[in-house]
Write a structure and sequence with these properties.
Number of strands: 32
Shape: elongated
Distance between the termini: 139 Å
Low-confidence stretches: 1-17, 20-35
InterPro entries: Znf_C2H2_sf (IPR036236), Znf_C2H2_type (IPR013087)
Keywords: DNA-binding, Metal-binding, Nucleus, Repeat, Transcription, Transcription regulation, Zinc, Zinc-finger
Function: May be involved in transcriptional regulation.
Structural class: alpha+beta
Family: Belongs to the krueppel C2H2-type zinc-finger protein family.
Strand content: 5-15%
Number of helices: 19
GO cellular component, one term: nucleus
Length: about 475
């Protein structure tokens, strides 16, 4: 009756009754011992958190009960409190009434704005006792400390991956759902999270506000800069338990560990080749498409990836920052140096099943196997000669062109390839590192030693059709044939 007479709404009346109570209730509260402001005397039996009021404790205990009676009509998300639902619904409304004066960022709640403003103030009052990392909010510190505890209570039912927070699990589960509701207006690329879309859009804007003090390289995100700075420091805190290889970030370690597992879930529909990463498959598919969008301004050579172009451009620059400690040979890339160092170690883990020949890298074995198949897909238009590799064809075609850009400084002899010039220069140096075990004769090249060793062997595969005389080497047969013509 009080409500109707005085025009008080039911909602307001319920609020007044719950929060302030009847006069008799107030009198009862007055009889209780006086409690200092801010004192927290009510504790949660489940987690030990303290509260200054009983109603706050009751509201908190709903979290442990799992009861969420307040649901959003638009997205069905549930909440333990009506206030949380109201705040959530502001997201759907798109209303962000609280703006930051410093950067213009908007928020749906005043609390969100206050938390954001701490970033600009630089004040990080919450410190981690274990690693010293500081945070602007207590909640951020609590979430961070879960990393040190190692507790990951939230598990994905589909792949078993664990997370320290429910939010991390929810974001991860979007990967399995294939739902990508956030699309880029410029290129159409879709994302599972709004945050990832925002990061992606920085690529189109060209804005890279985070710069490295050491080399000047810029990044769209602070995280990208931090990861990059590990390169300069040389710190690689993430190590592989199987092979000991170290990495600057956890993501690179996880990607590397897929190599040991042998798991390659991404397959090419055209050739069946499998990859450990989706990115590897995408890069591979560019080969089939024939699209080479990255061109070299100096020689016109095209590449499917920007990285391939950058590596190629180092050839023109002449910069070879990676040197071998054993022989002094220089390389444009760290990978090239690592491959080269296997030669000195003598370690050849890749063996041919057909002939037993071993190689330092998988690429060398793949190229070698073409010899056994007899497949020579690259043919010379001028003489018809076929070879197993495109590189071999290019080297062969230099013979027809007559171009010999590599000259010997000592005798002036020219060569079509740098490798042939190096082998030739061994003649002038007098160095003959390849020795015959049977007669002690020395040679400048391994190939010359192999040809020589045929003399000691009984095998003479080259026979003269005119007199039947056999020879260990084809050139000796050719010399012999001349004698028949003169006679």
């Amino acid at each position: 009756d009080f409500q109707l007479r005085h025009g008080v709404s039911l909602g307001l009346w319920a609020h007044l009754k719950d929060q302030h109570g009847a006069r008799s209730q107030c009198s009862q509260e007055a009889d209780k011992p006086h409690r200092r402001k801010g004192e927290k005397t009510y504790s949660c039996d489940e987690c030990g958190k303290d509260f200054s009021r009983t109603d706050s404790l009751k509201t908190h205990q709903l979290i442990h009960s799992g009861v969420k009676p307040y649901s959003c009509d638009l997205c069905r998300k549930s909440f333990t409190q009506a206030g949380s639902l109201n705040r959530h619904q502001l997201i759907h409304s798109g209303v962000k009434a609280y703006n930051c004066d410093l950067c213009g960022k908007s928020f749906t709640e005043a609390g969100g704005l206050k938390r954001h403003q701490l970033i600009h103030s630089g004040v990080k009052a919450y410190n981690c006792d274990l690693c010293g990392k500081s945070f602007t909010q207590a909640g951020s510190l609590n979430r961070h400390q879960l990393i040190h505890s190692g507790v990951k209570a939230y598990n994905c039912d589909l792949c078993g991956k664990s997370f320290t927070e429910a939010g991390g699990l929810k974001r991860h589960q979007l990967i399995h759902s294939v739902v990508k509701p956030y699309s880029c207006d410029l290129c159409g690329k879709s994302f599972t999270q709004a945050g990832r879309l925002k990061k992606h859009q920085l690529i189109h804007s060209g804005v890279k506000p985070y710069s490295c003090d050491l080399c000047g390289k810029s990044f769209t995100e602070a995280g990208g800069l931090k990861k990059h700075q590990f390169i300069h420091s040389g710190v690689k805190p993430y190590s592989c338990d199987l092979c000991g290889k170290s990495f600057t970030n956890a993501g690179c370690l996880k990607t590397h560990q897929l190599i040991h597992s042998g798991f390659k879930p991404y397959s090419c529909d055209l050739c069946g080749k499998s990859f450990t990463e989706a990115g590897g498959l995408k890069r591979h598919q560019l080969i089939h498409s024939g699209v080479k969008a990255y061109n070299c301004d100096l020689c016109g050579k095209s590449f499917t990836e920007a990285g391939g172009l950058k590596r190629h451009q180092l050839i023109h620059s002449g910069v070879k920052p990676y040197s071998c400690d054993l022989c002094g040979k220089c390389f444009t890339e760290a990978g090239g140096l690592k491959t080269h160092q296997l030669i000195h170690s003598g370690f050849k883990p890749y063996s041919c099943d057909l002939c037993g020949k071993s190689f330092t890298n998988a690429g060398g074995l793949t190229t070698h196997r073409l010899i056994h198949t007899g497949f020579k897909p690259y043919s010379c238009d001028l003489c018809g000669k076929s070879v197993t590799q495109a590189g071999s064809l290019k080297r062969h075609q230099l013979i027809h062109s007559g171009v010999k850009p590599y000259n010997c400084d000592l005798c002036g002899k020219s060569f079509t390839e740098a490798g042939r010039l190096k082998r030739h220069q061994l003649i002038h140096s007098g160095v003959k590192p390849y020795n015959c075990d049977l007669c002690g004769k020395s040679f400048t090249e391994a190939g010359s030693l192999k040809r020589h060793q045929l003399i000691h062997s009984v095998v003479k595969p080259y026979s003269c059709d005119l007199c039947g005389k056999a020879f260990a080497q084809s050139r000796n047969l050719q010399k012999h044939l001349v004698t028949h013509f003169w006679n």
